[in-house]
Structure formats: structure tokens, C-alpha cells
Structure prediction request, 565 residues.
Amino acid sequence: MSSSFPCQICVVCFLCGVCLTSLFLAALTTFGTFEFGVFSFAGFSTWNSTTQMINMVTSEDCDYKAKETEGRMNSQKIDERSTDEKASLLYSVWSALLNESIVQDSEFFQRFGLNKSSVPKAPHFENCKLNTQLNKRLDARGKNGRFPPWTVWKGFLDIYPPSETDEQMRYLRRQAMSKGSYPPWITGSDEDNYPFTRKVQRDIWSQQHPSNCQDPNVRFLVADWERLPGFGMGGQIAGMCGLLAIAINEKRVLVTNYYNRADHDGCKGPHRSSWSCYFFPETSQECQDRAFELMGTKEAWENGTITGKDNYSSKEIWVGPTPRVWGNPWSYLQPTTEINGSLIAYHRKMDRRWWRAQAVRYLMRFQTEYTCGLLNVERHAAFGWEAAKMVLSGLGQKWPEDGMNKPRSDIEEFVWSNHKAWIPRPLLSLHVRMGDKACEMKLAEFEEYMRLADRIRQQFPHLNSIWLSTEMQEVIEKSNLYPHWKFYYTNVRRQVGNTTMATYEASLGREISTNYPMVNFWMAAEADFFVGALGSTWCFLIDGMRNTGGKVMAGYLSVNKDRFW
Prediction:
């Protein structure tokens, strides 16, 4: 080595480099990995101590966060499992409450460590018994033929007990009743419904409920529901709409008789084989009794006090003149129906469309307790689990241990109880009619219905739920191809292949083949939007219910038009 200091520095640096390289290669050989972390360089330099500290903190922090995250995820899984278990318990209890006998069984609640008052209210249930009692009062005349209490006091507020000294309030309410407020079964303003809907419904009810059915000037039209082979439920209702038009034109009281679709064990007592199994009767019990009494009197038939279906031709029943009592309100219907991309402002049968909407609304103005119960069961099957989780999210973590033993306040009892049963909104109803309907209308594939559904969603992006009504199993299976939609539908066996509707309904039995379409019909009427086929009488009637139920401005997208337009 040179005595020169610079040379010595160079040699020392060279040797240090050789040592470091040797050690580095030895480390690679020993561990077989590239450990560039803290441990690899800890004994060889001090310039990177800050970096080592950062690496050390970061490494330990990541490890801690990983463990913390893992612990939080495990805790979350426990919470979720607990929530699911609670939701399952609540769903099961609600399911049991649909059985009237269990409601009175205290031992049932004790098995779950509950009592009846600790069970949260099911938001998707109607109180069918109480609703029916209230609606009976709203569907009958009072003393001295006084009008029902159709005042501005809505629903259960009508039975709210006023102060005994509040004579002025009672007087004003009687005045409102005598002037005849509009029927409570109409939702929304005149602009939300077909023209004159509220007045028409009031007038139909008045004619169908005379103050004295024994008056010799009261005349009747008594008719069975159509039961010829090939007539579906839609055809039967459309036929009765025609008979109601005749009754209005001739100033008669329509009295319906045998209804074959109610001839099953689900319809009990006097309601068996009667429209009154599903909806309130079209007239009072007094008028029914009087009409049936007159049917046995030859003189009543001869002088025209009573008539039957045989007194009228098929043409008069199905395409007879629409009542002109209210002028021509169909001539200015709001154009809210779209077919093939165009709004339909006019067609040849606007009067029939308007009248059938009024008639079907009147015939279905109030559900019976039986129909209300069917809807409770179906809503629970479709939405019950969601409802349970939604309710639990607003309760304390200790439910059911905490319980809910709180008395209901007046606002809960008389005000909030008037809200309709909960369903996931917004909700789009699709009625896909296929099968043997091809002989009556142009069929559309399910993809066309979904194309229209997607169009609605483009305008209303928060829409993601569909109530799917169809008789075809193929359609249910195709719904799986649309994962960005949430589908709900009734759990019933459906058609496979080209089976006729009559054969399919016969295979289900009369009770099921009547009940599940009734549920689908009402769900479609209550949905926020509707896509259907106006060539189908069933869709035509659903459209009528929606246009007299405050949903005119929701519009209607149809895959085809009515064959008579």
C-alpha cells in the first residue's frame, strides 16, 4: 500500500466494498429471499436509520391494523349473525300472527321469551278486522237514510271520540255528511284520476244504495257472473262492468248472484259463491234480499221491476252504450299511455276505457277481510324479511330482551294507522301475458317488457324493484338474467309449454287459481309504475284501477294496444 493518504482511503473503500458485497451475497444465499426490510441492513450503516424507523413503524402499524380489522370483521360477523337471528325470530313471530288462533295463544309468545306487546308492529300488515269494520261503516247509510260519514276526517279518525261538550264539531261533521263528501276509496285529486272519478263514484254508490229498497219505484237487475268455458277472470269482470252500465242507464240497482270463482272452501258461509267473498257487495243486504224476493214474483218480471241477464243481448252487455249521465269526460283524458314510443291521445274506444275504469273501481272499492288477509300473507312472503331487518334497525340492540311494552298513543292509533301497508318503493309492476293469449293479441317476449322497464329506470334511477306477474315459468327463469333488478312474485306453480289457461287453472284448483291472480291484480294497482299489454283484458282492468287510484301521472307503457282500438 502507498503511504499516500488518498491511496489508503481508496484501498480501504475498495476492501469495505468487497466485504459488503460478500456479506450481501451470503445473505441472499442463506435466506433465499429479498429481505429489503429493517433486518437486512440493520448492522451495516447509520444513514438509513430514519428509513428503518419508518419501515418498522409502518410494518408494526400494518400488522396492528390488520389484526384490528380482522377483529372488527369478526365482531361485525357476530353482530350480523345476531341481527339475522333476530330478524329470523321476528319474521317467524309475524308469520305466526297471520294465524288468528295463535294471536290469542299466550303460550306461543312465552316459548320465544316474548309477550304480544313486545312484538314490533309489522309495517307490511294491514289490520284486516279493524279495516273491515271501519269500511262497513263507510259503506252503509246512517239513520233516516243519511249519507255515510264521508267527511274530511280520514280513516280511523272517524272513530276518534270527540269531547262530549263539542257539539259544534259534531254539527259541522253532520253538515258535511249531508252535503255528501266524496267517497273515501278514491285517492288523490281530480287531476290524479280520470275526469269526474270522485263524482262518478259517489253517484254510482248512491244509485246502488237507495235509502229504501222496499220502495216500489226501485227496480233491479239481477245477474250471475259469466261462467261459460273460455272466460277468464278479466272477461268476467268486464262483462259485469257492462251490466253495471245497463243498470245505470236504466236507473236500476245491479245485484250480482252466483260467482263461480268464489265457490271454494276459502269463502265461508254466505260469502261462498259470492263476489262478497273478495270485495264488498255491489249493493246493500236489504236491496239484495228485496231483489231475490222479487225474482220469485211473476208480476215483477212482467212489469219490468226486475230484469236478468237474459233480457239483454251479448252486444248490449259487452259493447253497449256507455252511461252519458256525466257528459263525455272521456273526450279529454290526459294522454299518459305510451305504445311503440308514442303517447296515445285518442282511440276509438275511449268511452269504454273510461267507463270500465269507473266500474271496476266501484266493484272493488273495499276489500273484504278475506282479501286483506291474502295480501298480508303475500306481502309477508315477499317483503317480510326486509321488513324485519328494517324494523330491527330502528330498535335497541337488546331487543327482544328490552321488549316494547309501551301503550299506543292516539296519534299512532288514529292517524298513522291510516297509512297503507309498507312495500319496497318505488315498485314497478310487470304483467307478462303469454301462452294461449296469442289467439287474441300480438304477444311480446319478456325482453320487450324489460326494455320498457329499463326506460322507466333511466328516468327514475332509484327504481330497482319489480313485482312480476305471469303464468309462465319461462318468464320467471328469464328474470335471473337481470341481476340489476330485484324481482318479487307469488310462489305458485306456473305453466310450462303451451298448456291452455283453462287447463292450467284447473290443475291449480279453484281456490288457488282465483286467489293468486287477485293478489297480483291488487299489487299491480298499488305499484308506482306499470308495464303491461293493453291487448289483455286483465291489463286493461289494472290500467282502470290505476287511473281511478291516483296514478294517472305514473303513465302506462304497453307492449301492444287493445285489439278494438
Summary: Residues 49-97 form the longest helix (49 residues). The CA atoms of residues 194 and 547 lie 6 Å apart.
